Fold these 3 entries.
Entry 1:
Amino acid sequence: MKNRKDRIDIVNEVLEECILAFPLSSFVISLYQRYQRMGSLSKKQLIGLHSKASKISSLNPAKLATLEAIIKRMPTRYKSEKPPPSPLFTKDENIGRMIDDVLAVNPQHKGVLLLKNKYDNNEPLNAAETSDLKKFHGVVKKIKS
């Protein structure tokens, strides 16, 4: 196997040509520093380098073609879609039926209207509120019977 130093480094050559052509470009300078430090560039960075290098008329087209081949050889990474957010609170249908039953008999019941408002806004009912609703529902059942 050949050492890295023995091979022709097209990416480095293209970076140096870009630095000579665009000496004030912070993008090219940062790519060059990263390449010197890390030894490689990501696919998106190489695509950006290719677009900058294609603007240089004196650059050998073979170097651009080699850079393009390096880009095509690299894997394209796709981010998977996030799953849809699950609701924080799922409505209990029994509670909804109990609220409707109580309000059918007494539509002005302030306590049950408050619980209905919380239920409609997808807010969970605490244990005390649920027990109160069960008491009201029990009274309504006795009235209907």
Entry 2:
Amino acid sequence: MPAPAAGTVALAALPAEAQHTERLIRSGGPFPYAKDGTVFGNRERLLPSHPRGYYREYTVPTPGSRDRGARRIVCGGMQPREPEACFYTEDHYASFRRIVQ
């Protein structure tokens, strides 16, 4: 079984766009992309194992990108506005760091 997400990152150390996305998550939106808030399947198995539907993904806009870019926040928990844990990826799910306050 792959190891859980390695490392942590302080919310304040994330790009401003990620901090804004995290605030949107906790306020329930509105989100700029239709895929924001959809179920993240954890197919890469880099995050701790949980039943399908536990994780949701949100786009972190990348300045200058013509599409959604590679940056995301993935949060886990049964109440999307009050996630149990959130993870940041800047490489489209190849690696994750848990976001800490």
Entry 3:
Amino acid sequence: MSDSVSPVVSTMSDEEVIARVLAGDKASFEIVMRRYNQRLFRTARAILRDDLLAEDLVQEAWVRAYQHLGDFAGRASFSTWVLRITVNEGLARLRRGQRYAEQREATGAGERMDRFSSPAPDPEQQASASEMRALLEQLIDGLPDANRAVFMLRDVEGMSTAEAAEILSISEDNVKVRLHRARVSLREMLMAHVDIQCRGAFSFLGARCDRIVGQVFERIRG
């Protein structure tokens, strides 16, 4: 799958893209996938705390979204709708008590996503950025489940309190409380001398994005 999308197509709204897909233009589904792949991955990883399991969850969420695209009524934004599919499936997997440790061992999971990063011209800067991302991922993984999901949606993805509340099916007050607790915990773990630079954490671009798009289209066409 190519990263390039025509200027006309790339500026279409989600609703316009969905209308094209429902009219039979399956290829247009790639537009919304690439538009929200990173957001879905970050949300999935906040729930599962594992890169490969999160990728699998993202793939499943996109397939389900495609299969039920006709059910999208537009009462919420498309991104909220597909994120709720991701959250619901992720929580269902946790409730089923899957043996994640065994799955990691069997599939060789656990490789850091840093191997997908483009090499920076300055090795020292690259190492520093990699260390910071690794530290942030480790600290975020250590947050309680409920606080971690809220933190990922609000501070990493930059979503509003209302959006996070709708996706997680909790009140806006609960979102604020959990976000506050998450921030306090992280500040304490960072000992008040490291600025939180979250926007680059859990990146889902390039080869990873291409792989998810390709795998989903294989399943759709199959």
